[in-house]
Design goal:
Number of helices: 21
Strand order of the largest sheet: 7-8-12-11-10-9-13-14
Distance between the termini: 42 Å
Number of strands: 14
Helix content: 25-40%
Strand content: 5-15%
Length: 564
């Protein structure tokens, strides 16, 4: 059998590297350890977030299992994270998307510098997962992503709760339809412990995408955070990693164009987060796969929405877990010829082989996943729109409940908090198109999520009668008639910068169009007198991000650097 330490032998078995050996003796290596494959275990665990608070425990369990191996040794390390749920609606939210890039950079730095033969990443919250995937793509070594798992639901007065419940309760409180006591109890009971937000929000969306792409073990995305099944994963991941090393199956061997098509398909079927568009574009770049907005448009035009998940539906990931998890959904999609079954996975088997023994979905006794002939929506919910308001494109999340055409007068805000003040003062009326701008990748900087405004609209009873458009982005918890990722963004002189109060805006989903209904001559005059505002940070990581980030239509990557 070929040795598994293909990469680490450059420092462990190289006579010209006595310094490397000396340092490894210093951390406790014995003689036989120098011949073992070194597996980096990247935990995104930290104490201040339910999504991440348990991840170091999972990492320790994986390391303990690797310690039982005669051919591998685990070496743990950590990286940063942002709690989107805590920072949402504050200036701290600007760091969220930036953290994806820092996570990718830091994992690449550690694993690349230390010559790890394989990589196991253990992410939780939203940007953790694509950050890990980008790093794994750059390194291109045998790699497995183990999702930390979803949180259990909260409960108050017999109603299931999750994080988004608190934002919608806030909107109800603002308009006086919820008493203070009930508001406080909803907040107190929404998050009962460890795990990522329970609906089909960004973390669960990206975890499901990772599983269908083949870079996670089966059931990883739907096993709850504190379940026995998640603990079992910590055991099963060790032989899977050894098999990858023995057969030299690297990350890029798995991440083919068909794997990305599977990810887009499953995201569409489940009603997943618009953030998946940004993240899959960025991950594709890390593995040199050509992916563009029109790939999402093409797939969404033929794939139905079947998942009845929050935020727009009723159910949480824990409900799907009890029905057979993501593999049960994948098996159904394979039977319907909606996903590619020949794609390689981290088990060393194809998707079709992994699914051979999976129990089929029961469509009689559950309403979490609908059959193809009874979809929630006949086409996908991730609508890619173009027009004079978004020449490079934008992303709408339309599940079918909102309608397909919205025309109304603009109410323009250059700051998120100005809008919240307006809705509190009852200045937002039915039929309005709320515009929140200068919150894009550069203008934010950091492209903060607009869950607080969208949640406030829902809570205020305006979710079906007011549209919200922005050059920022939306949390996976957002629902309603919302359009984000508008590109070019306002700070770069995109048309959204020239919208004025009262301008008519039309959003036509059936025609994939978003239009500012202002004569071209008038727009030219506005552009002529426009002065580009300063970005409000001049140093630090936000300034670095603003200086290097690409457009939302290209995934907001920060390594678009031409060194030639």
């Amino acid at each position: 059998m070929k040795p598994l330490n293909k990469t680490s032998k450059n420092i462990t078995l190289n006579d010209s590297q006595p310094n490397s050996r000396a340092m490894l003796y210093g951390i406790g290596f014995r003689e036989d350890d120098f011949h073992k494959a070194q597996i980096g275990i990247a935990s995104l665990g930290w104490d201040g977030n339910p999504c991440n608070m348990h991840l170091n425990g999972l990492a320790k369990a994986v390391k303990d299992q690797l310690a039982l191996s005669t051919e591998m040794i685990g070496l743990g390390f950590n990286t940063v994270g942002v709690s989107d749920g805590i920072s949402m609606g504050t200036s701290g939210m600007r760091y969220s998307l930036v953290s994806r890039e820092v996570i990718a950079d830091s994992i690449e730095i550690n694993a690349g510098a230390q010559f790890y033969d394989g990589l196991i990443t253990i992410p939780g919250c939203d940007k953790n997962i694509p950050g890990c995937m980008i790093a794994m793509g750059r390194l291109d070594r045998p790699s497995i992503l183990m999702y930390g798992g979803t949180i259990a639901s909260g409960c108050y007065k017999g109603q299931k709760l999750n994080l988004v419940s608190t934002f919608e309760a806030y909107g109800q409180k603002l308009v006086g339809s919820l008493e203070e006591k009930d508001f406080l109890e909803i907040v107190r009971n929404a998050c009962p412990g460890a795990g990522s937000c329970g609906g089909m929000y960004t973390a669960n969306t990206m975890a499901a995408a990772a599983e269908v792409m083949g870079i996670s073990l089966p059931y990883s995305s739907s096993n709850p955070a504190l379940s026995p099944e998640k603990q079992r994963e910590c055991i099963d991941i060790v032989p899977a990693m050894q098999n990858l090393l023995e057969n030299n199956i690297t990350f890029r061997d798995i991440m083919t164009k068909q794997a990305f098509e599977n990810a887009i398909t499953l995201t569409t079927i489940l009603g997943g987060s618009t953030n998946a568009v940004l993240h899959l574009l960025a991950v594709a770049k890390s593995v040199d796969i050509h992916l563009e907005l029109n790939d999402f448009k093409r797939i969404n035009e033929r794939i139905p929405l079947l998942g009845n998940f929050k935020p727009s539906g009723q159910y949480l990931m824990e409900d799907l877990h009890h029905l057979g998890g993501i593999p049960a959904v994948m098996k159904y999609l394979l039977e319907e010829k909606l996903i590619h079954g020949n794609c390689m996975t981290v088990t060393g088997k194809t998707i079709a082989e992994n699914l051979a023994e999976v129990e089929p979905l029961d469509f009689i006794n559950q309403e979490v996943i609908r059959p193809v002939h009874m979809p929630i929506k006949k086409t996908g919910h991730l609508q890619i729109l173009y027009g004079n308001l978004a020449e490079e494109g934008c992303v709408a999340k339309i599940t079918g409940k909102e309608g397909s055409l919205f025309t109304g007068p603009a109410k323009v805000f250059d700051k998120e908090n100005d809008f919240l003040d307006a809705i509190s003062a009852n200045k937002i009326k039915k039929g309005d198109v709320v515009v929140i701008r200068y919150v894009g990748p550069r203008g934010g900087p950091g492209m903060p999520e607009m869950l607080k405004p969208s949640g406030a609209l829902i809570g205020a009873g305006l979710g079906k009668s007011v549209a919200l458009i922005t050059d920022g982005r939306f949390s996976g918890g957002t629902h309603g008639f919302v359009v984000g990722h508008i590109a070019p963004e306002a700070i770069d002189g995109g048309t959204i910068a020239f919208v004025q109060n009262g301008d008519m805006i039309q959003i036509d989903i059936s025609e994939n169009q978003i239009s500012l209904l202002v004569p071209e001559e008038q727009l030219r005059k506005r552009k002529k007198h426009w002065v580009q505002p300063d970005i409000d940070v001049q140093s630090g990581v936000l300034a670095k991000f603003a200086a290097s980030v690409s457009s939302a239509s290209q995934g907001c990557v920060t390594d678009n650097i031409n060194l030639r």
